[in-house]
Write a structure and sequence with these properties.
- Helix 9 packs parallel to helix 10.
- It is built from 11 helices and 21 strands.
- A hairpin with a 5-residue loop joins strand 17 and strand 18.
- The chain has 2 domains: 89 residues, PDZ domain (Pdz3 Domain, Roll), CATH 2.30.42.10; 213 residues, 2-enoyl-CoA Hydratase, Chain A, domain 1 (Alpha-Beta Complex), CATH 3.90.226.
- With 419 residues, the protein is an alpha+beta fold.
Length: 419
């Protein structure tokens, strides 16, 4: 008797489960599909579905059955992000349309705007750099000015990215900026005409006291090599005892630009050898006809934030004995990514190969279970750490009085012992 009651109870549970499984079909006045019946009673399980079918089934179930409406585009983007994150490769990622557009602007280093680099500020955004001959400079804006409003709308506490997106726009149009000038308490309104901006990625300074040329490269974008030539042409007019090329905090950029930059030092030489998933190897070789004369020592400054194309450039110059590396170890990004544009403006950045320097050195970064650096990256020829008692921020870079690593680089060039 107990066994009969147990079987009846079990049967009721199965009926209720099946009724719930097919309730949506019943509500719509439809019979459950044979495929659904098969899946429900085990004749065709998830194990027989392809990964694409599993994803599609789950996607459709969430889109149609979740307790509140969801945006299917958000579901798709979340799925793409999760798909790429599952690879455990921080350099393979899904870029939604806005992020993809921003990434493209960074690599091209041109956009329509006012010609200024902004940093966060609680009142809106502070102008960190004004580009020479740009609209901001023409309008009278300067370093440390704070942009508080755009076209009459306050941007206090709203984040610099949002502010930048509102400043950018169509070439030739005007934007009204409420600006708090340094040392003033009254906000002044400026009308600035948007224009096409080529972002300066290379800056040069002649250090007269030591007769050293200091060149800071912020990234390896499309115009970087040409900008480097312009800076070096200007510095070469001064009496030079050497050049310091600063790659600290440089996140890298385009492999093609790294090859162009290396071509200023060596020609027809292997820059990197790449190895794909099948073990096939290919090499990027420096170009002919672009080599410059370097009749003086060259030092390259690196740190843990020097990565990607910056590491290629520094590593190749070291391997061919064209420069001495000073600073601390670099990041250790020894992979090559390819960016694929998707149909809706999004992009997928995917690692397609691993690269090796001419010396065949593998500089791949290795970390512990907490993500802390263990090994990898370029090791400098001369280790020099920042003197934190004097250098308090990145703004001290390029100032020999406060920049201890730059002072060490100058000592290397001049052949003087460290103090």
């Amino acid at each position: 008797m107990k066994a009969l009651r147990f079987l009846a109870f079990a049967g009721l549970l199965v009926f209720l489960w099946a009724f719930g499984f097919f309730w949506r079909d019943i509500q719509q006045g439809q019979l459950p599909s044979p495929r659904a019946l098969a899946m429900a009673f085990g004749s065709e399980g998830q194990a027989n579905l392809t990964p694409e079918q599993v994803f599609k089934t789950t996607y459709n179930r969430i889109a149609s059955s979740y307790y509140r409406p969801v945006k299917t585009l958000d579901l798709k983007y979340a799925g793409m992000e999760g798909l790429m994150a599952s690879l455990g490769d921080p350099h393979t990622m899904f870029l939604p349309p806005k992020l993809a557009e921003s990434f493209a602007l960074e690599t091209r280093a041109n956009f329509v705007g006012i010609g200024a680099r902004l940093s966060p500020d609680e009142l809106g955004a502070k102008i960190a750099v004004v580009f020479d001959d740009g609209p901001a400079a023409t309008a009278g804006l300067g370093t440390d000015d704070i942009i508080t409003t755009i076209d009459g709308v306050s941007f206090a506490g709203k984040g610099v990215d949002l502010l930048v997106s509102q400043i950018r726009g169509k070439e030739g149009t005007w934007v009204r900026l409420g600006v708090l000038k340094k040392g003033e308490t009254k906000i002044t309104t400026y009308r600035v005409r948007r224009a096409k901006i080529i972002t300066p990625t290379v800056e040069g300074t002649y250090l007269k006291d030591s007769q050293i040329g200091y060149v800071m490269i912020a990234s390896f974008s499309e115009p970087t090599a040409e900008q480097f030539d312009t800076v070096m042409d200007k510095l070469s007019k001064e009496p030079l005892k050497g050049v310091v090329i600063d790659l600290r905090t440089n996140p890298g950029g385009l492999l093609e630009t790294a090859v162009e930059m290396v071509s200023r030092f060596v020609e027809d030489k292997v820059v990197v050898t790449m190895k794909d998933r099948e073990g096939r190897r290919s090499s990027a070789v420096s170009l002919r006809g672009m080599k410059r004369e370097w009749p003086y020592p060259v030092v390259v400054l690196i740190d843990e934030d020097s990565a990607s194309a910056a590491e290629i450039f520094a590593g190749v110059l070291r391997d061919y004995r064209k420069a001495t590396l000073v600073g601390t170890h670099s990041y250790g990004k020894a992979s090559v990514q390819e960016v694929k544009e998707l149909i809706d403006g999004a992009s997928a950045k995917i690692t397609i190969a691993k690269y090796f320097l001419p010396s065949a050195e593998d500089i791949s970064r290795k970390v512990d279970i907490d993500g802390q650096y263990v090994s990898g990256g370029l090791q400098p020829d001369i280790v020099s750490k920042i003197d934190e008692s004097k250098q308090t921020s990145y703004s001290d870079f390029g100032d020999p009085k406060n920049d201890s690593q730059l002072r060490r680089a100058i000592e290397v060039i001049l052949g003087t012992p460290p103090r």
